[in-house]
Amino acid sequence: MWYDDLPRYDAFSDLTHDDSYTPLPPGWVVGCADIIGSTGLIAAGRYKEVNMIGAAVISSQINGAGDRAFPFVFGGDGAAFAHPPEHRATAEAALAATQAWSSRAFGIETRVAMMPIEDIRAAGYEVAVARHAASEHVDYAMITGGGLAWAEAQMKAGAVSVPPAPEGAEPDLTGLSCRWSHMPSTSGTILSILVEPVGDAAAFAEVSGRVLELVRGLDRGGHPAPPEGPGVGWPPAGAVLEARVPGMTRAKVLAESLLAKLLVSTGLKPGGFDARRYRRVVGENADFRKFDDGLKMTLDVDPATAAALRTLLDEAEAAGTLRYGWHQQDEAMMTCIVPSPLLDNHVHFIDGAAGGYAQAALRLKGQG
After folding, report:
1. At a CB cut-off of 8 Å and minimum separation 6, what does 341 contact?
2. 166 with 97: CB under 8 angstroms?
3. Which of 179, 189, 270 is nearest to 230 (CA)?
4. At residue 167, does pLDDT exceed 70?
5. Are 99 and 165 in contact (CB under 8 A)?
6. SS3 letters for 67-79?
7. Nearest-10 Cα torsion for 138, 144, 148, 150
8. Does pTM top 0.90 for this prediction?
9. What is the DSSP letter of 217?
10. DSSP category for residue 273
């Protein structure tokens, strides 16, 4: 399939170049979702729920696709993805079921939409994709071209949607979890940054490269997860939320997480399963930086680097090259999709634990 044939770039800096990206093939469809009223939900302390629903959109698409790889991106309070045309019906059904589940399980309403790539191109935008190898085990899609942002704007305006799910429809969210402890900053602050191009693409690429050069000087490139992986608390903070996933119960979540904590603490390897190695791979696989019609990063930064980044971005914004938003907090958080703990291809989304990307987006839009 087309997506399987795309090269995987190990160096994140390679993703600043337009020639690293390939446009979606004709006929492909783009899907997106976002949470209505996420600002108020965050203010009410419900950001972990917001993150979980965003990850649930991707989880339902992964389970619907089986073993087939496809591009997807996590945005904190939403998500986006793309599929070939023959999988549109399956993808729409999963998207609608996730929308209904969000309302039933959390009382949180979402917008969802799908559209063919031809509609996006007719509006003058593109969806071009690259693959970044976050580790030897997983890679994540990077997106450019402005098409996702345009599609999301159309969705928010009510121009596109998907038919509602049948009564009682449940999404397949197998593997969706949020059991890891929050990850405190060890350098100074957890910084969530959104940077969007405004002017010349080459100028934006040059500034993005300078941003990444600054970040490269941070410990492990600013990765918020410790080298040994995130902490294992008990009871896990997300137990009540995960119990609302179809097929899960609070008792099951507590039992599984207690076993994981014991295995990490003791180093025991029942059946050959190495919990400490699994925890380390979780950190290695985590998606803490991406290109999604702009540069998005959640970083553990020291004060000097934060100040240098702010100066660089302020100057580039004043020059008309970009616009940006950022949000500082004390901790990062992780939401996970783990189809099988016995395999290494589990994916993990990192965001700031006190508003993260959603709060940074408000500042980018001049609302915060």
Report:
1. 273, 278
2. no
3. 179
4. yes
5. yes
6. CCCCCEEECCCEE
7. 170
8. yes
9. T
10. -
